[in-house]
Structure formats: structure tokens, C-alpha cells
Amino acid sequence: AQSVTQLDSQVPVFEEAPVELRCNYSSSVSVYLFWYVQYPNQGLQLLLKYLSGSTLVKGINGFEAEFNKSQTSFHLRKPSVHISDTAEYFCAVSPMYSGGGADGLTFGKGTHLIIQP
Amino acid sequence: NAGVTQTPKFQVLKTGQSMTLQCAQDMNHEYMSWYRQDPGMGLRLIHYSVGAGITDQGEVPNGYNVSRSTTEDFPLRLLSAAPSQTSVYFCASSEGTIANTGELFFGEGSRLTVL
Asked: Across the interface, do B104 and A102 touch by the CB < 8 Å criterion?
């Protein structure tokens, strides 16, 4: 079984400052890694994903994440945040052996990013 | 392109009542799933389907039923509502496995309150 730990439930950041949202996972097998974003009163949408290849992954809205296999981490970063980035961010993993079916997807509990003007 | 459509958006039930949350997608996706979202708990998988006529249980299936008679529709039935089922419910779909597409498409959610 897999587990995902998002180390911060809430991260306040001033506008135009950099931000890092931390995600660690536990798995005995290789995994696919994802970050989803949920804006207020909306469903989740994919921000970025790591399936294979380069460990630095770029996503939408200027976000990027780096897969670190030795530290089992997949931290999300943005160099300069905007008010519009206020949202809930979810890290998720899926084991490769499952073929990547939705039943294998495990979500973290989420990090609420609060942008202060 | 409507994507994933959930109805109703809000619902209040009394304990013991039954109801169906509707989910429809117009992307011809094979995979569909239902999640519930509770504060501090993230998203938990209730049921999922890999195609018409095929359903399976997720992490928290008790108290819920599903069926998949068509590719487009995946309704979630609450048999006898309990206060513990107060939550926000999300339907999601994907074209194939996460490995192939890397993406779930979510509806906007259905907020259910059980009194």
C-alpha cells in the first residue's frame, strides 16, 4: 500500500514571494506522482505529473515539482505567487504495477495555500 | 465541452432517506470513480468503474451503491443516509489508466448534508 504525507496543512505566503509545498510518500514499489489543485468551490484539476524521465516537472500556472527518489519526496514550488494561486493543493501517488488505474491513486490530505497581499 | 457533470450541487437529507447523486461525462472515458472529501482527510475513493457493466469497491464503499449501465453515466446511491455521510462528493473520469493519461477529470462536486 502507498501513503502520502503533506507536511503542512496550511501555508501562508505574501504575494510575489516564493512558495514550496511539501509532499512525501511511502511505497515499496515505483510510483507515478501527481499534484492537483482545487480552487474554492470547484473540483480538482491536474497541475502536473511525473510518470518517468526528467525529475524536474513543469506544470500549469508557473508551478514545478521535483521528484527525489532517495528522499521519496515530490515537493511543489513556484518562484512568485499571485492572489489567484489561493487554493487547496493535493499530492497523489499511483503504483506503477497497478497499470495506473484510478483505484490505485492515493491522495494526501491537502495543503491550503493562502496568499496574503 | 461539458466534461464531468454532477447533480445536484447541494442536497439536505434526513437520516434514513435514500438518494442518488448523478454523474455524467461526455468525453467517452472508460474510467469513472466517486470520491468523498472531508476536512483534513483528503479524497477517499468510494467506488470506481473501468467500463460499462464493471464496478468495484474503493476505500470507503459501505453505505453506497453504484452501477454503470452506459459509458456516460455513473450514479452513486445512498441506501439509508447517515450523518457520517455528510461530505462533499466528487465524480471523476479518465480516458484510460493514470499511466497512459496521467489525469483525472473532476466534476464540481455535490455537497450533501445529512441531518
From this structure: yes
